[in-house]
UniProtKB/TrEMBL annotation:
The keyword Coiled coil applies. Residues 71-98 form a coiled coil. HAMAP family: ATP_synth_b_bprime. This is ATP synthase subunit b, chloroplastic. F(1)F(0) ATP synthase produces ATP from ADP in the presence of a proton or sodium gradient. F-type ATPases consist of two structural domains, F(1) containing the extramembraneous catalytic core and F(0) containing the membrane proton channel, linked together by a central stalk and a peripheral stalk. During catalysis, ATP synthesis in the catalytic domain of F(1) is coupled via a rotary mechanism of the central stalk subunits to proton translocation. Component of the F(0) channel, it forms part of the peripheral stalk, linking F(1) to F(0). Pfam families: ATP-synt_B. PANTHER family: ATP SYNTHASE SUBUNIT B, CHLOROPLASTIC (PTHR34264). F-type ATPases have 2 components, F(1) - the catalytic core - and F(0) - the membrane proton channel. F(1) has five subunits: alpha(3), beta(3), gamma(1), delta(1), epsilon(1). F(0) has four main subunits: a(1), b(1), b'(1) and c(10-14). The alpha and beta chains form an alternating ring which encloses part of the gamma chain. F(1) is attached to F(0) by a central stalk formed by the gamma and epsilon chains, while a peripheral stalk is formed by the delta, b and b' chains. It is a single-pass membrane protein. It comes from Saurauia tristyla.
Length: 184
């Protein structure tokens, strides 16, 4: 009986293990907080980011298909130009005595104009692809930045007192005004 009583008495000497409070040890809490925030960002942002990237990928693929069609048209024009070139060469054999230099000049002009058209088409395709890629990258960056900023502000709002909150808002407004001046 004495052992049972001693066990209840000894429970009174133990500190309460189930109490709730704030852990002020920065080195212990920051990795936990960061891992939770990163986990939430990855869990909730993955679908949005994946959808955004899939949509952008489809647009880029459509642009590439359109560019390939344009390229196909340019190749077709090139084939027509080559056929015309062959025709001009046959005529050149007939008219060699009368005007060989004139025919050569027409041939060079035809080749140059066709190659310029093909080159312009290729450049247009490359510029369109580059533009769409940059646009997609910028949109993804903006989306991720906005989501991170919203979550960070939510976390800050729940942790700051009024005075610190007002100072943080003032500092952020100053940063945004400076960014606006830079972009203007």
């Amino acid at each position: 009986m004495k052992n049972v009583t001693d066990s209840f008495v000894s429970l009174g000497y133990w500190p309460s293990a189930g109490s709730f409070g704030f852990n002020t040890d920065i080195l212990a809490t920051n990795p936990i907080n960061l891992s939770v925030v990163l986990g939430v960002l990855i869990f909730f942002g993955k679908g949005v980011l994946s959808d955004l990237l899939d949509n952008r990928k489809q647009r880029i693929l459509n642009t590439i298909r359109n560019s390939e069609e344009l390229r196909g048209g340019a190749i077709e024009q090139l084939e027509k130009a080559r056929a015309r070139l062959r025709k001009v060469e046959m005529e050149a054999d007939q008219y060699r005595v009368n005007g060989y230099s004139e025919i050569e000049r027409q041939k060079l002009n035809l080749i140059n104009s066709t190659s310029k058209a093909l080159e312009q088409s290729e450049n247009s395709k490359n510029e369109t692809i580059y533009f769409e890629q940059q646009k997609a990258i910028n949109q993804v960056r903006q989306r991720v930045f906005q989501q991170a900023l919203q979550r960070a502000l939510g976390t800050l709002n729940s942790c700051l007192n009024n005075e610190l909150h007002l100072r943080t808002i003032s500092a952020n407004i100053g940063m945004f005004e400076a960014m606006k001046e830079i972009t203007d």
